[in-house]
Design brief:
single chain, 300 residues, alpha+beta, D-amino Acid Aminotransferase, Chain A, domain 2
């Protein structure tokens, strides 16, 4: 699974701290905290027919992450939404768009990791691309990575930070193995998530997903669990092992960029019948209904 260049994105207009410029002219200072140390938080948003699904939840997570990192100045939700609207309008975007929203601690007066060197306020970057869901609906193949997700006493996963080297190293292993993505375990050996998505499994009609002890509190993950509650679908959130995944009837992953996508092979083993399972199909359809009718209007 390799994303390819979309010709519609060749002349994108990018928003860096309110300045709308062509993608080739966008500039982030070498003194910016994101460049200096990955000191930034981010969100992935998806635009459906002029509406961003779960916008309020994403902005709340962005703010919570920035507060956890002691950002002194955080833009208001209203000001962030204003910049998102300006960016979408500049690109004439309505649907099938993924938005990468990044908030860095800002530009430092001199290089160094001390946050007191940040005196100019945060940097807000809005990058909107024409991008349909990136995962195949025919089924993904995963491998288990040697890289572990850190526990809260190392780097709390509730901080949705932009230091993604842990995930990138796991993705390198997946690429080398010819798989689509990598499963990452926590320090105890239980499943945390993949390098890019949350993971679900189905056994005996029960939908199960790992706790968020070593993975972010996913917005799409929360939506899937809410759908299960609303539809009376049995579900559990608990520690899950690889052995449980290997014997599952179905598996799927979830995330804003890829929505819901079936997992059909793990570590060379077929999951269930090796195809997209019925409950995965049902949940995918119900998620699509949510995104088709819900969300915050940002394009008039």
């Amino acid at each position: 699974m390799l994303q390819t260049f979309d010709e519609r994105n060749r002349n994108l207009i990018v928003n860096v701290n309110g300045l709308l410029v062509h993608r080739d002219e966008a500039r982030v200072s070498p003194f910016d905290s994101a460049v200096q140390g990955g000191d930034a938080v981010w969100e992935g948003l998806r635009l459906y027919h002029g509406r961003i699904f779960a916008l309020e939840a994403h902005l709340a997570r962005l703010r919570a992450s920035a507060l956890a990192l002691a950002f002194e100045r955080i833009p208001s939700d209203e000001s962030i939404v204003k910049e998102i609207r300006r960016t979408l309008a500049a690109n004439g975007m309505q649907d099938g768009v993924h938005i990468r929203l990044t908030l860095t601690r800002g530009v430092k007066v001199t290089s160094g990791m001390d946050p007191r060197l940040n005196q100019a306020g945060p940097t807000l970057i809005v990058l909107a691309e024409h991008k349909p869901p990136v995962y195949s609906k025919q089924g993904l193949a995963l491998v288990t990575s040697t890289m572990r997700r850190p526990a809260p006493d190392v780097l709390d996963p509730k901080i949705h930070h932009a230091n993604l080297l842990n995930s990138i190293l796991a993705k390198i292993e997946a690429n080398a193995a010819g798989a689509d993505d990598a499963i990452m375990l926590d320090a105890r050996g239980f499943i945390a998530e993949t390098n890019a998505t949350h993971l679900f499994m189905v056994e005996g009609g029960v939908v199960r997903t790992p706790t968020v002890a070593a993975c972010p509190e996913g917005i799409t993950r929360a939506t899937v669990l809410e759908i299960c509650r609303a539809q009376g679908i049995p579900h559990e959130v608990r520690d899950l092992s690889l052995a449980e995944l290997y014997r599952a009837d179905e598996a799927f992953c979830s995330g804003t960029m890829g929505e819901l996508a079936a997992v059909t092979r793990v570590d060379g083993r077929a999951i269930g019948g090796g195809g997209v399972g019925p409950l995965t199909q049902r949940l995918s359809a119900m998620y699509a209904e949510r995104t088709a009718t819900g969300g915050t209007q940002v394009v008039d």
